[in-house]
């Protein structure tokens, strides 16, 4: 008599199916992140209006415009912006405070262009 029971279901098949399902979900998330990254979309969890408000709350900042936020990888976000200062006397302090504010919002690659209120930004078309 043969001890191999061919009618008994493979108990490992359920585990393999769950494993493949988990892998598929992870792949789908990576695909979505990569697609958004390639289209230069604003990263999930980033609210441009809130970012602008937070930047404007920094002492010495009169206004912010031309804000662009994008993902430079699936784990790192970047920002460029024009910052209008009420005075340039505290430029280094304002810059450090802005970078700290943005780092708290998970934006660590920052490029800022500083302007004074007396200047008229050539890029500003309001």
Query: Percent of residues in helical segments?
Result: 25-40%
Based on CA atoms alone, the radius of gyration comes out at: 25 Å
Q: β content, as a range? A: 15-25%
Largest sheet: 3 strands, mixed
- Biggest sheet, spatial arrangement of strands: 1-2-3
Compute the number of strand runs: 3
User: H/E element string?
Assistant: HHEEHE
**Count of helix runs:** 3
Are there runs of 5+ residues with pLDDT below 50, and where?
none
Mean pLDDT: 80
Structure, explained:
By secondary structure, the protein is α+β, with helices and mostly antiparallel strands. The protein is built from 3 helices and 3 strands. It has a 3-stranded mixed sheet, with helices on one face. Strand 1 and strand 2 form a beta hairpin. The N and C termini lie far apart (89 Å). The mean pLDDT is 80.
Question: What descriptive keywords fit this protein?
Answer:
alpha+beta; 3 helices; 126 residues; 22% strand
SSE blueprint:
Layout: H1 12-38, H2 48-56, E1 61-71, E2 77-85, H3 91-104, E3 109-116
Concise overview:
The chain is an alpha+beta fold. It has helices spanning 12-38, 48-56, 91-104, and strands spanning 61-71, 77-85, 109-116. Helix 3 (91-104) links the parallel strand 2 (77-85) and strand 3.
């Amino acid at each position: 008599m043969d001890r191999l029971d061919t009618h008994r279901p493979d108990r490992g098949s359920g585990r393999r199916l769950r494993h493949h399902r988990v892998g598929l979900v992870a792949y789908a998330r990576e695909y979505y992140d990569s697609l958004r990254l390639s289209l230069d979309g604003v990263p999930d969890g980033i609210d441009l209006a809130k970012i602008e408000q937070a930047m404007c709350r920094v002492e010495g900042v009169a206004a912010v415009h031309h804000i662009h936020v994008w993902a430079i990888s699936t784990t790192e976000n970047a920002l460029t912006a024009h910052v209008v200062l009420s005075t340039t006397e505290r430029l280094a302090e304002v810059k450090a405070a802005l970078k700290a504010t943005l780092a708290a919002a998970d934006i660590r690659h920052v490029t800022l262009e500083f302007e004074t209120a007396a200047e008229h930004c050539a890029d500003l078309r309001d």
